[in-house]
Design a protein that fits this description.
Strand content: under 5%
Radius of gyration: 18 Å
Number of helices: 4
Number of strands: 0
Shape: elongated
Largest sheet: none
């Protein structure tokens, strides 16, 4: 379901964004996933973990395939 502009304006009016909305939303995403970083493999949340945890090592799907025990 996509919202039309009028609906977006209504939602933002009812639930105003904080002055630091961009950083707040990144922090909120981080709080929700920091305890399960492996679930970020292959999605944009890996970017959030990498931003907040400098020692985070994101998985690489191609390396996972190449280093697997699969024949070939």
């Amino acid at each position: 379901m996509l919202l039309v502009l009028g609906q977006v304006v209504s939602v933002v009016k009812a639930f105003p964004r904080s002055p630091d909305f961009k950083e707040d939303i990144i922090q909120t995403f981080y709080e929700g996933i920091k305890h399960k970083p492996d679930t970020t493999f292959g999605n944009v949340k890996a970017d959030v973990i990498a931003d907040k945890e400098p020692h985070f090592h994101r998985g690489n799907f191609c390396s996972l395939i190449r280093c697997s025990a699969w024949a070939g």
